[in-house]
């Protein structure tokens, strides 16, 4: 792969099996340079977040993101490669796939729709867009509890100042143009599967032919004494995030929970707040997910940025002065000064409204689906953070993977199966986090790992960690080591197992080498 200058902009020139292809050079998701990505099996995978693009068409084949790449004309004459591209396409760097328009627009708030999608996160939006891309021209209604059109939720905890309009995944005109109706602040209270009908909190009833449930999850809250005091937040919406930043400026902030959300918030607030403290039950941050050694290295980075940790303890009381938070009391009897508290202790699936519906829920409230994202009720599909599904490359183990990329992929598979295309979910999970300007990338499913093999330098935060179970590598994480996580994701996606001994030697030329 090579980046080539064309006067009005650059293109990615790819030579694969003797054939030349020219494509947009930046990933439409967050603008990563694709030349630094991985070329394999006729596609290029983004080095930052793992999105995949077909080199023959430029089409998006795996997520995150919504748009594809422009494909440019290539001609070879007398050993020279000529690329022909329009100025506009070069400057745009993204291509929205062709979509059908809706030919049966609703007469106002009419009481029936062909497809109803509950939840407007990544799964819901990608489902709606996929239906239109596949030529579906009947009515689609997308309903959300939020007051906003679909937005980039992972940014909330990484950039708490971001305004709703900066986070929007598509402009208002997009939904109008393709006839995707969005009902905001619309809460479904019951689903009647026998009559194919849902009832909203305001009494509005809507009949459907096909239903996608993508309600996401709700943040867990503290159950300690004083939990009702003011200035204690979970982060679910742009308003929550904006309020936290506003109140934390120059004040004392306590973050409860050292998982991804808590640590991202703590990192973001270090330059804004007077002090930032993190309270966590485990002995190191991210321990269950990234292991002891990686967790400790990240903890040190936070401590170097003035973050104070209170580990192996939890909150026993929130104390107020005139109704507003003043102190956080820990079970270790330590009292921490706090004007603002952010709670990031996990989430539960938002599926309470389905309890009497006949749609299957497991003991934890998740919706079990098969590889086609179908529930136990015909015509009812589910996707996103609220589902458990069979993970193909881990022997179809039923798992819940509440990640942005996975929600995209599941939304697409649900749409394809609404159209009877018999698609199956087979993507390799990929996620990322960003703290203090450094990114950590992760691919695979590491639940139950029994060893971590680290190459590189943890102290310098330039490393790759392989998570193994028995003889097999089941996940990988890295910092400052691109594109290794995308490389491993491609190897796993191809169906090949990576053995522990292959990563123990320290010779990773088979992984880091250029080409395929």
CATH architecture of the largest domain: 3-Layer(bba) Sandwich
Q: Using the coordinates shown, work out and report the CATH topology of the largest domain.
A: FAD/NAD(P)-binding domain
Helix content: 10-25%
Beta-strand residue fraction: 25-35%
Describe the protein's architecture and organization:
With 516 residues, the protein is α/β, with parallel strands linked by helices. The protein has four domains: 95 residues, 3-layer Sandwich (Rieske Iron-sulfur Protein); 178 residues, FAD/NAD(P)-binding domain (3-Layer(bba) Sandwich), CATH 3.50.50; 114 residues, 3-Layer(bba) Sandwich (FAD/NAD(P)-binding domain), CATH 3.50.50.60; 75 residues, 2-Layer Sandwich (Enolase-like, domain 1), CATH 3.30.390. Helices cover 20% and strands 33% of the residues. It is globular, with a radius of gyration of 24 Å. The chain starts with a strand and ends with a helix. The mean pLDDT is 95.
